[in-house]
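Methods — Computational structure assignment.
A single polypeptide chain was analysed. Its primary sequence is given first, followed by the predicted tertiary structure written as structure tokens.
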Amino acid sequence: TARGYATTMGDLVRRALDDSGSAATDILIGRLGGAGGVQMCLTRLGLDGLRIDRDERHLQTEILGLEWRPEYVDPKLLDQAIEAVPRGRRAAAWRAYQGDLRDTSTPRAMARLLDRLAAGKLLSESSTAHLLNVLGQTVTFPDRLKAGLAPGWTIGHKTGTSGSWDGVTAATNDVGVLHAPDGGAVAVAVFVADSRASMAERAAVMAKVSAAAVEAYRASPRRTAYRIRSAVP
């Protein structure tokens, strides 16, 4: 029998961001007209350098050398299918993933998106405040951007880490908005690609970037104070 549960768009956004929930992400993408619909929205907003070509289920299975099948919603069946993929095909799929321009962003494009979000130029005031509030609840990888903050600073961010193959991790990311004590905001995006460094070493690089951003903000005579309204009732 079919089973399900009631949810809200707000809960799906929280699950997609704070929990890195692929299912929640795919539901949201579907409600927005699929990957093509999301891309049209980004293009309309002038957010060049960002590509959304597939939903999570197709992207993640293709990386593994598989084609998405509905039965893969069962984790056991998906794990069995992954185990059955020949090593050569896994390796070829991984190499293709490393060079694939689909579903990618440049760091500059991501930082520009976050900057416009924090400035209230993408969403309504209430939606902007809500999304920044959700990003502020992220608890994953506190040793990345968050670790470089000075006292009084806070961050709303989204971390991401790809799988690894033969000791190489294709993507280790942390992107977000640093909030200064004076109400200013700094958008930061750090992408570490194809790294053999340890997870701790990659995190330390990100922490250094956010620390440098804080120092640059303090030294800048042209600070940006967005004064985002709190989303907490």
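Note: The two ends are 39 Å apart (CA to CA).
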